[in-house]
Write a structure and sequence with these properties.
Elements: E1 5-8, H1 18-30, H2 38-45, H3 50-59, H4 68-81, H5 90-100, E2 103-108, H6 112-120, H7 125-128, E3 132-134, H8 135-138, H9 146-152, E4 160-164, H10 167-175, E5 179-183, H11 190-193, E6 198-200, H12 206-209
Parallel strand pairs: 1-2, 1-4, 2-3, 4-5, 5-6
Helix pairs in contact: 1-2, 1-4, 4-6
Length: about 210
């Protein structure tokens, strides 16, 4: 059955920004006494909020200043502004959704400013500017299902499809009773499957999975 609404995560689903962001995180935290590999950063932080990252890092021994959130955002946005690619095949998916008259939006734990940086350089900002739900603005973050429920509005959960790449996102979709497609470009996706997501490793497969 075709959905009425497709809810996309941003980082790692619309734009291939997770590796870049976590490389910045790896370098930054090393300066505060916490040495992690890129894989460890991604395992620990992908899908979380920046405030959650801060608390986890402190618990692991990082001595972070009070203004660390502003600092890491500035460093990350500066690096992303140098260039981040769209996820392979995603623009074609959005074109198909437009042609089929299926609504879509983005619901992210990230800030709108970050999404403007990443989506803006890939000709996707105008597609999502008025269909954007940020945990920073709404005060609810994945794995809380409220972010997806707010994004869905009047569309019933059974008529929504969520596209996610993080455990927190998959958990939020399950809690919201929404079908979740778990996109896994950089790993085997087992962590997403464990949360009930249907695995997808190529965006070209997405239209067929939703009846297009």
């Amino acid at each position: 059955m075709k959905p009425e609404l497709v809810i996309f995560d941003c980082d790692g689903v619309l734009v291939d920004s997770e590796v870049i962001s976590n490389q910045v995180m790896e370098d930054n935290l090393a300066g505060y006494g916490l040495k992690l590999t890129l894989k460890e950063c991604m395992d620990l932080f992908v899908g979380g909020t920046i405030f959650g990252v801060m608390e986890k890092s402190k618990a692991l021994g990082a001595t972070l200043p009070d203004d660390w959130v502003a600092e890491i955002y500035a460093q990350t946005n500066a690096r992303l502004a140098q260039g981040v690619a769209p996820v392979k095949g995603i623009v074609a998916v959005l074109d198909l959704l437009d042609a089929a008259g299926i609504k879509y939006c983005v619901a992210s734990n990230g800030a709108r400013s970050k999404m403007q940086t990443t989506l803006g350089q890939n000709d996707m900002w105008e597609r999502f500017e008025n269909a954007m739900f940020s945990a920073h603005e709404l005060g609810v973050a994945k794995p809380d299902p409220d972010l997806f429920q707010i994004a869905a509005g009047d569309v019933p959960p059974e008529k929504c499809v969520v596209v996610e790449d993080s455990v927190n996102g998959a958990r939020a979709a399950a809690a919201a009773n929404m079908r979740c497609l778990g996109y896994h470009e950089h790993d085997d996706g087992k962590n997403l499957a464990a949360e009930g997501a249907e695995l997808i490793d190529d965006m070209a497969k997405l239209p067929g999975l939703i009846g297009l």
